[in-house]
Amino acid sequence: MSVHLIDSPSCLTEKQICYDYWQYDAKIGYLNHIQNLCQKHALSHKEFFKAIHRYRAYISDVRCANCNSYCFVDVPADIPYMREYKIWFCESCIEFSCGELVSQK
User: Fold this and answer.
1) pTM for the full predicted model
2) Is 83 contained in some domain?
3) 46 lies in which domain range?
4) How buried is 22 (Cβ within 10 angstroms: 0-12 exposed, 13-18 middle, 19+ buried)?
C-alpha cells in the first residue's frame, strides 16, 4: 500500500518537494495541500509544478490484470480512486485489445 517515486538523477534537489507532494491527506483537500507546500518550500505554483513534473509515481499494490505493470498516477488524489478497482487494466493493454479489456470496480 505504498507509492513509489521514479526520479531522474538530475532532480535530486527536488526529491523532498515531491515526497511532500505525495504525502497528500484528502482531509485537507488537494488545493489546500498544494498551497501549503508552495508556502513551505517558498515556491510559486509554476515552480512547484515544474519540480514535481520531473517525477513519476506508481502504486505498488495496483497492477494490470493482463501484463502485471504498475499503476502510474498523476496526482495523489487519484490513489484512493484507483484502489477501488477489483480488476484494473493499463492503457497499453486496453489499446492493444481494441477496448475489449475493461477495468472493473
Assistant:
1) 0.69
2) yes
3) 3-96
4) middle
- Please name the helix (run of DSSP H) or strand (run of DSSP E) that holds residue 71, with its range, or none: strand 70-73
Distances (CA, A) of 62 to 23, 68, 69, 93: 18, 9, 9, 15
Query: Beta strand 3-6 with 70-73: parallel, antiparallel or unpaired?
Result: unpaired
Task: Please indicate, yes or no, if residue 14 is contained in any of the structural domains.
Answer: yes
**In total, how many domains does the chain have?**
1
> Do 48 and 17 contact (CB within 8 A), yes or no?
yes
All three cell numbers of 86: 477489483
> What number of CA atoms fall less than 13 Å from residue 86's CA on the CB side?
2
- Could you read off the pLDDT of 11-33 as tens digits, one per residue? 556 788 888 998 888 888 899 99
Alpha-carbon distance of 54 to 69, in angstroms, equals 21
- Report whether 32 contacts 24 (CB < 8 A): no
In a domain, 105, yes or no: no
Cell triple for 1: 500500500
